[in-house]
């Protein structure tokens, strides 16, 4: 699914309700909460203190929740996620082009 389509699907779903998009600060709080839940899942998967097997399904769910919350914010501000991502990629390609050592290509 393309980002534009994802934004439209979220918008269509949200607009089924009288109280559609939450106020911006409430949306930011929701994104922060979902990001914290994703952080907790990654911490459980990566830490040596806990003896818990990582759950790919939980990680997938939390990433989906973060993405949904971010799409809601973008839709509320009428921002194209595709344009935002393309702008960011262009920034990194320019600003950070020499920041990290590039992989050596393997001759065939």
Number of helices: 4
Could you tell me the strand content as a percent range? under 5%
Q: Which residues form runs of ≥5 with pLDDT under 50?
A: none
Mean pLDDT: 90
Order of helices and strands: HHHH
Q: Helical amount among residues, as a percent range?
A: 55-70%
Query: What characterizes the major β-sheet?
Result: none
Q: Any idea how many domains?
A: 1
In the CATH hierarchy, what is the superfamily? Answer: MazG-like
Describe it.
With 108 residues, this protein is an all-alpha fold. 66% of the residues lie in helices and 0% in strands. The protein has helices at residues 3-14, 24-46, 56-76, 81-95. Helix 1 (3-14) crosses helix 3. The model has no long low-confidence stretch (mean pLDDT 90).
Q: SSE layout and pairings?
A:
Layout: H1 3-14, H2 24-46, H3 56-76, H4 81-95
Helix pairs in contact: 1-3, 2-3
Write out key terms for the chains shown.
108 residues, mainly alpha, Helix Hairpins, 4 helices, 66% helix, 0% strand, extended
Question: What is the gist of this entry?
Answer:
The chain is an all-alpha fold and about 110 residues long. It contains four helices and no strands.
